Amino acid sequence: MHTTTITALPDIPYATPALTSDREHLVRAGDHLWRVQDASGRILGHLRIAAEPLGLRYRAERLHLASGAFRLIGEFWTADEAVQTLRYLR
Q1: What SS3 state is found at 15?
Q2: What is the pLDDT of residues 67-77, one digit of tens each?
Q3: At residue 17, what are phi and psi to the nearest 5 degrees?
Q4: Residue 9: predicted pLDDT
Q5: Fewer beta carbons within 10 Å, N or C terminal of the chain?
Q6: DSSP character for 71?
Q7: CB-side exposure of 75: number of CA atoms within 13 Å?
Q8: How far apart are alpha carbons 59 and 13 in whole angstroms?
Q9: 25/33 Cα distance (integer angstroms)
Q10: How far apart are CA 22 and CA 55, in angstroms?
Q11: How far is CA 5 from CA 9, 40, 43, in A?
Q12: What tens digit of pLDDT does each residue of 3-51 get?
């Protein structure tokens, strides 16, 4: 039987991912978490780095105020794809 072990990310802050579009920018909110803001400063959601067996994944998340928990919108291989999801999801 083969088991897959997902390793935890180290407790060091990652560099802010570079985005190809200048429509949004990232503001650090934690070691592995950034707020995604549009040009006017409105928060669109959050971008989180998550470790997977095949490499780093970028999670697009939204904060659910009533529960105080993040809701996963989707996981992507690039930060740009995750941010684009937050851009078009209202």
Answers
A1: coil
A2: 989 999 999 99
A3: -60, 140
A4: 53
A5: N
A6: E
A7: 7
A8: 16
A9: 13
A10: 26
A11: 13, 41, 34
A12: 555 555 556 678 899 999 999 999 999 989 999 999 999 999 999 998 8
Structure tokens at 78: 């690039």
31 vs 85: CA distance, rounded Å? 22
* Rounded Cα distance, 18 and 1, in Å: 39
Helices (H), the chain: 79-88
Long-range contacts of 45-48 (CB under 8 A, 24+ apart): 45/73, 45/86, 45/89, 46/70, 47/17, 47/79, 47/82, 47/83, 47/86
**Helices then strands (H, E): number in the chain?**
1, 5
Q: What angle do CA 65, 59, 22 make, to 5 degrees?
A: 95
Residue 59: per-residue pLDDT: 96
**Which amino acid is residue 26, in one-letter code?**
L
Amino acid letter for position 67: S
